[in-house]
Amino acid sequence: MDERIIRFIAALRAGGARVSLAESADAMFAINELGIQDKDAFRLSLRATLIKNSRNIPLFDELFPLFFGISPIPAFDNLENELTSEEANLIAEALRQFKRDLQSMLERLRRGEPLTPQELEQLGKLVGLDRARDMRYRDWMAQRMEKALKFREVEQAIRELMQLLNEMGFNRDKIDQIRQLLIENQQAMREQIHQFTGFKIAENMSERPSETGLDNLLNSPFNSLTEKDLEKLRREVHRLAAILRTRVALRQKRSKRGLLDAKATIRFNLKHGNVPIVIKHKDRTLKPKIVVLCDISTSMRACSELMLSLLYAMQDQIHKTHAFAFIDHLQFVSPDFLGRSVREAVLLVLERMPPGHYNTDFGCSLENFTDNYLDTIDNRSTFIVVGDGRNNYNDPRTDLFRLIARRANRTIWINPEAPELWGTGDSDMPRYVPYCDDIFQVGTLAELTQAIDQLLTR
Questions:
Q1: Residues 16 and 229 sit within 8 Å (Cβ to Cβ)
Q2: Could you tell me which residues are beta bridge partners of residue 19?
Q3: Boundaries of every domain in the chain
Q4: Are 373 and 332 in contact (CB under 8 A)?
Q5: Nearest Cα to Cα of residue 159 among 115, 102, 114, 108
Q6: Model confidence over 224-243: pLDDT tens digits?
Q7: How far apart, in whole angstroms, are the C-alpha atoms of residue 338 and residue 169?
Q8: 292 and 410 in contact (C-beta within 8 Å)?
Q9: How many angstroms separate the Cα of 428 from the Cα of each of 118, 129, 145, 329, 451?
Q10: How far is it, in rounded angstroms, from Cα 361 to Cα 384?
């Protein structure tokens, strides 16, 4: 118990509560006096000794049940005992008509099987939960795990299964009972996932040092960054941009001389009779022209903000940048960078398009782009999309994406999601992949910097 209390205190500190060593000792002394049998007294003793600012009470109330009062796994009901052998055979026959993954999930819900701890851990690693250290991302992480399990497709499959059973002559009252049971079991699985994400993030917070080193921050996933971490990285962007500028400028200087230009060589040397002879080369213009579309929805905001900051801090190495931001519609944001510092411009963009619960609609943004800004793309342009490829089941408009990709010299996609998640839930990423020249899986600022370096090098 002492170890769990120590981890609980570490998680409070990571969440922003100031807890001194003396206050930690007071908490231990109070617990020794009051014991842990009375749960309310135990909770109040910890809150009285550890929390001295009322604004930290919500943090305490959120973390306490995760460390000391995790509710048991929600109840999953089973159908097996309520079906005759004939009814069970009919359901098995109906399930065989679904895809293997959906069939497996429906069978699981029918049998009332929860996710195992190993499966939860595997899902958590897939979506980056093992490195998340901010409770603000709890719901978002749970939603990503649900998408990986294709919850929305399962809901549609339940409706189709009920319709199929009805057509097969199954008892209607029994159909309603089965439908209700499957829905309740899926909700129980959803609650199980939500409990797991909260506890895992709390554990991660307790293991995190009070001050994270800059090297660790550069390699921390975007979705695990706190606002304090992000502020440090905003300052670091300028140093990284300076390094990139020097590196790219040196490459351009070395590569500026191309093939021998015979006509220019002869013309230049006529004035002194070709003695001595000065060799002239064809000049190669290497600075790229960039058109970038950045998803600045809640899940993508940190990645897109740092991407825009890096690009505009390197404008002397880029011929022209046309920058656009989108959530459910597209906005041209390049004018915001005129006469302002990069940080001021990025803040202006983020204020104009605040995060919210409205759905990302990349298809609509592509329509906005082709209707109003298609002339920014030509055969010298590098077209870049910064986004996770999730379209909330809206029309992805791959026809428009293909049109833009054909007009551009290169098409690049920067995606923070692991490839294993592409195509799960509302992800349309596999539909865009065939039209991309390069795809960078970028989850940290270090990986983003490396991607931009490669992009400008090519």
A1: no
A2: none
A3: 2-68, 80-208, 224-255+287-457, 257-285
A4: yes
A5: 102
A6: 676 777 777 777 777 776 77
A7: 69
A8: no
A9: 28, 22, 17, 17, 22
A10: 17
- Residues with Cβ within 8 Å of 391's Cβ and at least 6 positions away in sequence, in order, are 360, 361, 362, 363, 426, 427, 428
Question: Which of 324, 390, 392, 330 is closest to 358 using CA atoms?
Answer: 392
What is the rounded distance in angstroms from the CA atom of residue 181 to the CA atom of residue 174?
10
User: Which residues are bridge partners to 390 per DSSP?
Assistant: 427
Reported as a single tens digit per residue, the pLDDT across 241-260 is 677 666 655 555 555 555 66
Token representation of residue 51: 């929390």
What residues form DSSP beta bridges with 386? 294, 414
- CATH top-level class for 224-255+287-457? alpha beta
State if pTM tops 0.90.
no
* Burial label, 41 (beta-carbon count in 10 A; 0-12, 13-18, 19+): middle
Q: pLDDT tens digits for 151-160? A: 888 888 888 8
Q: Tell me how crowded residue 289 is: count the other CB atoms within 10 A of its CB.
A: 19
Q: Of all residues in the chain, what percent are helix, strand and coil, respectively (each to 5)? A: 65, 10, 30
Contact present, 388 and 300 (Cβ < 8 Å): yes
424 alpha carbon, distance to own chain's centre: 14
Backbone angles phi, psi at 438, to 5 degrees: -140, 145
